[in-house]
Design brief:
- By secondary structure, the chain is an alpha/beta fold.
- The chain has two domains: 2-171, HUPs (Rossmann fold, 3-Layer(aba) Sandwich), CATH 3.40.50; 189-266, Alpha-Beta Plaits (2-Layer Sandwich), CATH 3.30.70.2210.
- Helices cover 46% and strands 13% of the residues.
- It has helices at residues 2-18, 29-42, 58-71, 86-89, 95-114, 134-140, 146-149, 154-163, 190-205, 229-233, 237-247; strands at 21-24, 46-52, 74-79, 118-120, 211-216, 219-224, 252-255.
- The strands form two sheets. It has a four-stranded parallel β-sheet, sandwiched between helices. It has a three-stranded mixed β-sheet with strand order 5-6-7, covered by helices on one side.
- Helix 3 links the parallel strand 2 (46-52) and strand 3.
- The radius of gyration is 19 Å and the shape is globular.
- The two termini are 37 Å apart.
- The model has no long low-confidence stretch (mean pLDDT 94).
Length: 268
């Protein structure tokens, strides 16, 4: 914990030097921590911005509003239109670059309108080893990553959120955008996004919190942790999930025998 506290002090100092800051805020663990520290240091000179997008589950917007209220930070919601960009909708391997470019353009406009000196995202030291085209967009837009700058990873962030800032979001599972459910090259449309979201909500209603509903045409493939699999095979959960998948337009629902793993569609 001593190392985490030193990193936190370094982070506070860096944020203080900014004078004012707009945080690209999803309501997830990392951006919530950054927003909490920014509000602590800068008060009203810190603003959290959330992009309302079809690519994100409705529950994530609800979470973002709730976390921002718990922190007390000023929260701005702006519509994002990355789906209107064919470079994004075609779902190339660098899809995230176009999404983040849209987000950071919005952040820049709002920061300029509000007179905020800097923009920051929630990228951490753990993200250095992952495939993150969005980081190229951040560099092009001069968006900082202060959590990464001080060497903070997920364990430090979760512990500090829980023990210093007392925010329940510390235990929230990762929630990447719904576009991550589609193999590269599979076109992304709003109806398809809503379809995988509906299936995931049905799985959560059956008692499984961590799930990815992967889109494969008329097949939806469910990835869950091993301990959760029995919940999907027993009624009434099984029947409800099948009914939700059929209503969403899928012909078949499959349960992947390989356990859930973040980033599996990034494999060669």
């Amino acid at each position: 914990m001593e190392q985490y506290v030193r990193q936190l002090d370094d982070l506070r100092a860096r944020i203080g030097e900014a004078g004012s800051l707009l945080v690209a805020f999803s309501g997830g663990v990392d951006s919530s921590f950054l927003a909490a520290v920014a509000h602590e240091v800068l008060g009203d000179r810190a603003v959290a911005l959330t992009a309302a997008s079809a690519s994100h589950p409705a529950r994530d917007m609800e979470d973002a509003r709730g976390v921002a209220a718990a922190i007390g930070v000023r929260h701005v919601v702006v519509r994002s239109r990355e789906l209107e960009d064919p470079r994004y909708a075609e779902n190339p391997r660098n899809r995230c670059f176009f999404c983040k470019s849209e987000l950071f353009a919005i952040c820049r406009r709002v920061a300029d309108e509000m007179g905020l000196a800097r923009i920051a995202d929630g990228c951490t030291a753990d993200d250095r080893t992952d495939f993150r085209p969005g980081r190229d967009a951040a560099r092009e837009a001069a968006v900082g990553s202060p959590l990464d700058d001080v060497g903070m990873g997920k364990p430090a962030i979760r512990r500090l959120l829980a023990e210093v800032y007392r925010l329940p979001v510390a235990a929230k599972p990762a929630s990447p955008c719904l576009a991550s459910r589609f193999p590269y090259g599979t076109a992304i449309t709003e109806p398809r996004l809503r379809a995988v979201e509906a299936v995931e909500e049905a799985v959560r209603a059956a008692g499984v919190e961590v799930v990815r509903a992967r889109f494969h045409g008329d097949v939806v493939r469910l990835e869950v942790e091993p301990a959760s699999a029995p919940l999907l095979l027993a009624d009434p959960g099984r029947a409800a999930i099948v009914a939700a998948a059929r209503a969403a337009g899928f012909r078949f629902v499959t349960l992947d025998l390989e356990p859930f793993g973040s980033g599996r569609l990034n494999r060669p």
